[in-house]
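>> received
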Amino acid sequence: MTTFTIRPVDPLRDAETLHGWVTHPKARFWMMQDAKPEDVERAYMEIAADAHHHAFLGLHDGEPAFLMERYDPAHRELAGLYEPEPGDVGMHFLVAPTDTPVHGFTRAVLTAVMTHLFEDPRTRRVVVEPDVRNTAVHALNEAVGFVPEREIRKPEKTALLSFCTRERFDKAVRA
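>> returned
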């Protein structure tokens, strides 16, 4: 049985771990490939101080395994790019790189992330905006109930705006 726990990122304590993840070639869509450890620490200090953006470290059986960010899309990332609805929550996630991938692990992580987000009764819909070229994450998103709406142009990328309601998520994970 896979056990995940989620705790807030501690920028000082977690920066070294996160630096290894966000600069790994598999994390190219995280757009921090050239970041130095102090850049990662600074970025997560800024998130920690932001009332509309929160970062969490996901643990698998007590060991760091993934990063999750939750944000208010009316104020961060998507502000002005779509019409937010009450209960919308934006999300990013990144699974730690590994030399020994486990089949289904990333989907299990995404399911844990979505479960965590929907534990808040105010969350009605999760919004994501991955790079249009990130086809692997599009397939994962659709597997847990996301429905692509349209491509949007962000300063750093062309993104696929997608939404997942609580009902679609429940149906997808029960299937």
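>> The helical segments are 11-22, 37-48, 105-118, 135-143, 166-174.
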